[in-house]
TrEMBL record:
It comes from the Bacteria. This is Peptidase M48. GO terms for cellular component: membrane. Residues 1-21 form the signal peptide. Gene3D superfamilies: Metalloproteases ('zincins'), catalytic domain (3.30.2010.10). It comes from Hymenobacter jeollabukensis. Belongs to the peptidase M48 family. One of its GO terms (molecular function) is metal ion binding. Residues 79-254 form the Peptidase M48 domain. Its cofactor is Zn(2+). Keywords: Hydrolase, Metal-binding, Metalloprotease, Protease, Signal, Zinc. InterPro entries: Mito/Outer_Membr_Metalloprot, Peptidase_M48. Binds 1 zinc ion per subunit. Pfam families: Peptidase_M48.
């Protein structure tokens, strides 16, 4: 936490003459869409993320759903393997700045994953069991990692709540709103990413998976294909916080083709073992 609320307010006044909308510049390649306007520092992303993660942990511990690493060591070993391959793809801005921890939530009825500001990742067991292979899991994780690394959450929150309220949370105040944000990210509220953020996260998912030299980089498309086949009667919770802007599958596949990484095939044995352990 490097700035006081006074400093943050001064920063807000200094940029008051700029447009409040996100600023985007054309991207020549899938690897380089511009990051949107964000008044908060990276350190403040980390500070806010730590508070949201603490609240999220408490919420799921109270329900008996937060899976401990000590008693689920092998499941975490397998999941960490996927997460670290995606994280080490060479294209993250904040690979060493954010903590990038991952936690499992025991809820087989919920097909969801989300990331807080600052890179705390949560994966519901229902999502893992919903998916068919490891490249699909890597694709969804890549999407969530992109939301954190591109700092989409604080951009969304500063628009929804305003700079002053978010600054008060960073200073340890307004814990009720921290709980509300944690629930919103988990799909329990109305916090939803914009079409632009969803498209950017999808695009970066393909870039990240391409950088692994391991996964088929259209893995996230597999999730959406399966969700589409399931129909609108009972859509995965992931779609409640990640609304489908249309043509999403085609866009992911087009990005993957442009990167030349659609034909990779990995063994599914570790993924099947992870599913059995959950």
């Amino acid at each position: 936490m490097n700035r006081s609320l006074h400093t943050l307010a001064a920063s807000a006044l200094a940029v008051a003459g700029l447009t409040a909308a996100a600023v985007h510049q054309p991207a020549a390649k899938p690897a380089a869409p511009a990051q949107g306007f964000n008044i908060f520092s990276v350190d403040q992303d980390v500070a806010l993320g730590a508070q949201v993660a603490h609240q999220t942990d408490s919420m799921y511990q109270a329900k008996g759903q937060l899976m401990a690493r000590g008693s689920n060591a092998r499941a975490y070993q397998l999941l960490d393997g996927v997460v670290n391959r995606v994280l080490d793809n060479g294209n993250l801005k904040y690979r060493t700045k954010f903590p990038w921890d991952v936690k499992l939530i025991k809820d087989d009825a919920t097909q969801n994953a989300f990331a807080t500001p600052g890179g705390h990742i949560y994966v519901f067991t229902g999502l893992v069991k919903f998916l068919d292979n490891e490249s699909q899991l890597a694709g969804v994780l890549g999407h969530e990692i992109a939301h954190a690394d591109r700092r989409h959450s604080t951009q969304l929150l500063q628009r929804q709540y305003g700079v002053g309220i978010l600054a008060s949370m960073i200073l340890g105040k307004n814990q009720g709103l921290v709980a509300q944000i944690a629930g919103g990210l988990a799909g329990l509220g109305t916090l939803k990413f914009s079409r632009t953020f969803e498209q950017e996260a999808d695009k970066y998912s393909t870039v990240y998976l391409n950088g692994t030299r391991y996964y088929a980089c259209d893995g996230a498309a597999g999730f959406f294909i399966k969700a589409e086949k399931q129909g609108s009667a009972n859509p995965p919770e992931f779609l409640s916080t990640h609304p489908n802007p249309g043509s999403r599958i085609q866009a992911i596949q087009n990005n993957a083709r442009s990167l030349g990484c659609t034909g990779r095939s990995v063994s599914n044995s570790n993924f099947e073992e992870l599913k059995r352990l959950l």
